[in-house]
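User: I'm curious what two different proteins look like when written out as structure tokens. Can you demonstrate?

Assistant: Sure. I'll show them one after the other, since each token string lines up with its own sequence. Here's the first protein:
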Amino acid sequence: MRLDDEQESSNFEIQQGGGGFGGGFGGGNLLGFLLPMIGSRFGCGGIAVVLLLFAVMGGGLNLGSLVGGGAPSGQVSRDAGQLTEVQHFSLKVLGSTEKVWGQVFSQSGQQYTPTTLVFYSQNGMSGCGAAQSAMGPFYCPNDKKVYIDTDFYNELKSRFGSPGDFAQAYVIAHEVGHHIQDLEGTLAKVHELQGRASEAEGNALQVRVELQADCYAGVWGKLTGRMEAGDMQEGLRAAQAIGDDTLQRDAGRTPMPDSFTHGSSEQRMYWLKRGLESGDPAQCDTFSGAV
């Protein structure tokens, strides 16, 4: 992508420091936050193991030790002088999303409210609870911020075989897509529906949420006017690598569609490409008909 001259967003935070889980964030709350994350990565079996350990130890299980340590003490910096090269790149992507979505919202007579990108290393805290590198990048609707440990880019390249600047940009654009859904009220509606749904139905709804965010990421890519030859292939390769069926198969498991929370590789590639080719958010309705 041609982002060298793109203006960096000023909407960022850098979380620093280390320490234990604090701020009144008890084990019960942490458990409630972590289970969906564990389920999305390891399925029902992973949830069952954690619940069993929690029960055996009388609710006294140190969940922090299971997920790799504690969260920062809460020190936050907004000093651009502390940013790494990859963080500068991330902020150029974020700045580009602000420009694109600002124009899209303006065309419908609305004003776009940007999200904030929070950088942390290994362990952090979000408005949704603990942030851990193992979770990958995520959006928290409680504080309307995107959280990322940029070491995930290395994982994207080495583990998922998806190098390239557009693959990295797709990661951020996808999370910004969730912010768009939050502003549109989609996340709140889906959360309400999931509260009345079975596990399989709730997972199916989450898949539609994630696929729409993929499509929105594609819309952004198209509307930037900064894509180069090979960028679409980079993005599609990344989407293929992080499909639920591919991840489950790579983990030695038989893919189980009822457990999918992000969509199959084919679905993720289809919706990203749909956004990239159309540049039209109206083409990203994953909630009507089959996906």
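Here's a second, unrelated protein for contrast:
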Amino acid sequence: MIEVKFFGGAKKSFDNDNITIKQDGLTIKDLLSYLMKNKPKDTPDLDVENLLIAINGIDSSAKDGLYTKLNAGDTVSIIPIIHGGSSQRTQFKISNSLVEVMEVSKNQKNAIKFLENIRKKFQRLKIQGISSRFVLGKSHIKKIIGLSLTAKKNKLLLSNKLETDILMRLAGTNQILRAIETVGIKKGNNFIIIAIGNKTELNKLYREVKPFLSSLLFNDDNHIFLKKQFKISKNQMNSIISKAPLEDLLLEKAAILF
């Protein structure tokens, strides 16, 4: 048997927090097909294109994605990623957590002090700053944050802070100092702010940092840099059947940290 747990809007789609499926030998793709065929009538639609699907707490994209095989006793978590905010903002919801991602221009003179100041001013938010070079794009950062939020829910954080867990997963290491040295913000480079909390506080933060933001979020192509940084070979890339093999390999490194 497989236990399926629903989070956020997925609960409304199935009128339940969880269900048990007795079929064995399913893949994630089979499971989604089963769920859509058996979804109660007159309930909200489930957007299967915007889901974080975790198997026993590990993001399925770090395994074989939709073709990941499920085993008896597995727990599958279905977590909708809900997009929101204006076209100039990158804001999304994972389970019950509202997240906003912003990119600060490299013209900011003292990036570390800038980050410290907004942390002091917005203590109700979880805020982390990371080098822009370590993010492939929106999908990559959403899934990394999703891994950390899932780890927090399952009490499997790599650190006692959610913000540090995100940093460590992006760096692919369980050593905090190494993660800070590797992925932490650098002088003279754009850096990304990840903020998690309620909408009111996120709006206040956005207004505060808006004058310093880069006009184009995730504009740089970091593929070559990240392949070198994580020593990912051409053979490794070719071994992944995916539209985004580098992203999947980075997520795999992030998911297996303990």
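A detail about the second structure: Residues 2-81 form a domain with the Ubiquitin-like (UB roll) fold (CATH 3.10.20.30).
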